[in-house]
Amino acid sequence: MADGKVDPAVFTSASLPSDPRLLATVTNAYLGTRVYRDILHVNGVYNGAVGDTHRANIPSPVNVRMTVPSADSLAETFTLNTRTGTFSHVLQATDYAATHQIYAHHSLVHLMAFSITIWRSAHTTQPITVQLQTPFVPKSQDLDLNQGPDFQGAHYVYGKTLVPEVEGGPRPTVHMLWTPVPQALTLRGEEQERSWEFLTAVAESEEEAKRSYSEGLALVSAGSLHSSHVHAWAMLWRGCRVDLDGPLPLRQALCGCLYYLLSAIPPRGSPGFLFHGISPGGLSNGTQGEDYWGHVFWDQDTWMFPNILLFYPEAARAILEYRIRTLEGALCNAREQGYEGAKFPWESAATGREVCPEEIYGAQEIHVTGDVLMAFEQYYCTTQDQKLFREDGGWKLVDAVAQYWCSRMVWSEEEQCYHIRGVMPPDEYHYRVDNSVYTNAVAQRSLNFAADIARDFLIPVPEEWVDCAKKIKVPFDAEKKYHPEYDGYSPGEPVKQADVVLLGFPLMHPMSSEVRRNDLEMYEPVTELDGPAMTWSMFAVGWLELKEVQRAQSQLNKCFSNITEPFKIWVENSDGSGAVNFLTGMGGFLQAVLFGYTGFRITRSSLRFNPALPDDVSKLKVAGVTYLGHKLKFTIAKEEIRIKVMESRRDPLASPLEAVLEESGRRFPLREGQSVSIPMAAGWIQRSSTE
């Protein structure tokens, strides 16, 4: 079949992967599981103290397998449809078909559901029976589960987690209702087709669980439960389209990455629960000893967040609100280590206290605090949402991070600059180093942003912030014209993952093209080939900046060894080790396209673009890019860029936009519903200077 006839958004196989970790996931922002797994997880519900805290295992009523034991010549297919957020299993006989669909409802986030549909294709009158294998037992090692009275035909259990994250801290209660599952279902002889629907509702209050279950039942009665879920996904995709004319594996990878990442974000409008961030393996993973226990790292803020922000600022805001709610924990972390302000944990769960099981990372991998603030900066520049900072706690967080960085620096009389000593850089092969170039550069960026936003809000800027930002050491070898990873780094030393290359993007640290090239040349050959999956995406972005498109593509192609078949689940390391459903790697891959191929850069005053397409990609369409209240569509071909304002928000922040070409300074007004065509060249989008 020609590539053009294969739907890149639908992944189908006649068999399941032998490794159950690589099964498709069905999640929304609140509930998640892998198909055919005996547990599910709830966003923000952890059990265990500090380093032992992990996502609480909740027994999964949707773990059901459909079989027809005595059937002959039965064709079997398993499909993940990323357009509809639905996993399906089809058994096809000569005279009938049975379909099992599983999904986590995207907009009704407290609901998971599955259905069984049997239909006969021939004029037979024999009853058709399918068996349902369900190993479900309503017990959990993490919850003290009790049985409650049935509700509207559903069974009911509830219970608290056993151990709080911190002494005296909260122990969330989980309430779960589910439709009992029979051992078999039969299509009677006189019936042509029949469907059975099974609901699971999970919430942290009895009232919400029952309300959600009742709402699900009403939709089942109206025949619209699954269609309402499909509609929610259709609306989600409508606001976020990435299409390219290019190789099928690349198109499939993009669809898979977007599906798994979009599965994790809150729906538009009020989601009805507090969002607790996104962990490297998402909600489908994170039990004890798996996928970093479901903790939240810099992976969320640096690797996933920019893609979400580009399309869905409201969901990006929810991620920032999680960091604001956990600020108290970050303030405690700093105090415990003898510093002022807020130190965000290397691994975060419900409270913001450090929950990394190994002390060295929590103590030394402090760049995460700057990574968190960089997400706030990108959001502010893209939305100009002052309310988040003035009224909703954002400024308090910015101020606390700036205080932390100033207290973490020491003055070097010898070098006449500030040092940050005893840290672990993103390259975790090295620790207790001084002046990690990435850490120091992100600290400098934090302080500059804090000062900028203070000026915007007419708040006096502490002189210390300005002084520390101006005089912090950012290691640079003037002779070799490259950035050493830290004081004393020797060229050729092995590096675990992307580190110095992150200075160019996403940090956008000022440097010449020569230095950018030298950093890429220096670190590319010494970076662990089988290391974390997001690494090569950042090398690709660097080479795209320098218009070395084929070299960029060779780096991006390395990512494909981390993508497994048939459901495009990413593994952290190409040998299969580490986290699975590795959203971090997917986030990096998406950035290589959304910020690499397009050249998008979020700056204080504009959204810059500078496209570079590889030879085997003739056209790229990115629709739904949100900037200052406008939704934009970019169509990038080899010779031209077309920009269209798809829709504009009706408020004062959404003042008209214009495109400006860098070389000529020529301006193109952007009006809703109209397209402008400009040459394939660098430029930027900004507020119109004439209206």
From TrEMBL:
Residue ranges constituting the Glycoside hydrolase family 65 C-terminal domain according to the UniProt record: 601-647
Molecular function terms, GO-annotated: protein-glucosylgalactosylhydroxylysine glucosidase activity
Gene Ontology cellular component terms for the protein in this record: cytosol
EC number: 3.2.1.107
Pfam families: Glyco_hydro_65C (PF03633), Glyco_hydro_65m (PF03632)
Catalytic activity as recorded in UniProt: (5R)-5-O-[alpha-D-glucosyl-(1->2)-beta-D-galactosyl]-5-hydroxy-L-lysyl-[collagen] + H2O = (5R)-5-O-(beta-D-galactosyl)-5-hydroxy-L-lysyl-[collagen] + D-glucose
Superkingdom assignment: Eukaryota
Glycoside hydrolase family 65 central catalytic domain mapped to chain residues: 285-490
Top EC class of this enzyme: hydrolase
Keywords: Glycosidase, Hydrolase
Alphabetical GO biological process terms: carbohydrate metabolic process
Function: Catalyzes the hydrolysis of glucose from the disaccharide unit linked to hydroxylysine residues of collagen and collagen-like proteins.
Record-stated family: Belongs to the glycosyl hydrolase 65 family.
This protein's name: Protein-glucosylgalactosylhydroxylysine glucosidase
Organism listed in the record: Sagittarius serpentarius
